Amino acid sequence: MSMHAETTDPPVLLNPDLDLSGLRERFDQTTRVQIKDAFHPDTAERLHRCLMQEMPWMLAYNEGDTPKYLQRDEMAAMSPQQQNMVMQQIFENAAQNFQFVYLDFPVSGTANIEGQRKFYTHEVLKFLNGEVFRDLVGKVTGLEEDFKVDSHATCYQAGHFLTSHNDVVTRDDPRLIAYVINMTKNWRADWGAKTEFFDDEGNVIEAFVPSFNTITMFRVPQQHSVSFVPPFCRAQRIAMTGWLFKPKRD
Questions:
Q1: Sign of dihedral through CA atoms 208, 246, 18, 215?
Q2: In this model, does residue 250 exceed pLDDT 90?
């Protein structure tokens, strides 16, 4: 246990009463599934508290193919006018190109850094790379390939979004399945931040509203987005997200 973790941190456990056959049937039909009430209640509440209260968020966005990050102290040092200029440039880019903006914390990227503060999200990442989660993935998706799991924590609030994309970056992209562990409570459908899936003509064929203690998994590639969070939203959509991907071979 990390010295920064709560002394009463519960183990990361799944809900033992999941309807695995029903989930598999759903995934086979659509290549995507929502696993509701996915974790044991103690696990879910602890992860929710970690994401809501403990994350050292930074603003993540992109300029073309280049990801950019603004730390808290950098944002605090900017005037409202400077912050507004950053957001206006993000909106301009989104009009023509792939664009994202949200709060982020790199769980995988900080997992093995000596001296890095450890959070409950790091315990969840260990679980995702363990046998219990591997067994769940196999039973729900039928995936038989070996895989690793990466993760970053995300927080969407007013003005944030992720435009349409299919998660394929390179021709030999190793990503197999995308996932979102959503820990958002009491979200309204008109607050946006939905995970939306599109057909070849751009129609929304399915949309998942942010919810508490839900794991979404879907095959890569498929076109999807996270819809715009309007200015009147005062809440936060919190999650851990990432990919199951083929490990590199030596």
A1: negative
A2: no
- Can you spell out the DSSP letters for 92-153? HHHTTS--EEEEEE-HHHHTT-TTPPP-HHHHHHHHHTSHHHHHHHHHHH---S--EE--EE
Q: Which residues contact 217 (CB under 8 A, 6 or more apart)?
A: 27, 32, 33, 35, 137, 140, 141, 177, 178, 179
Alpha-carbon distance of 100 to 90, in angstroms, equals 8
Which amino acid would we find at residue 47?
A: L
* Domain at 21-245, CATH class: mainly beta
Q: Which tens digits make up the pLDDT trace of 222-243?
A: 999 999 999 999 999 999 999 9
Query: Which pLDDT tens digit goes with each residue over 139-152?
Result: 999 999 999 999 99
12 contacts 123 by C-beta, under 8 angstroms: yes
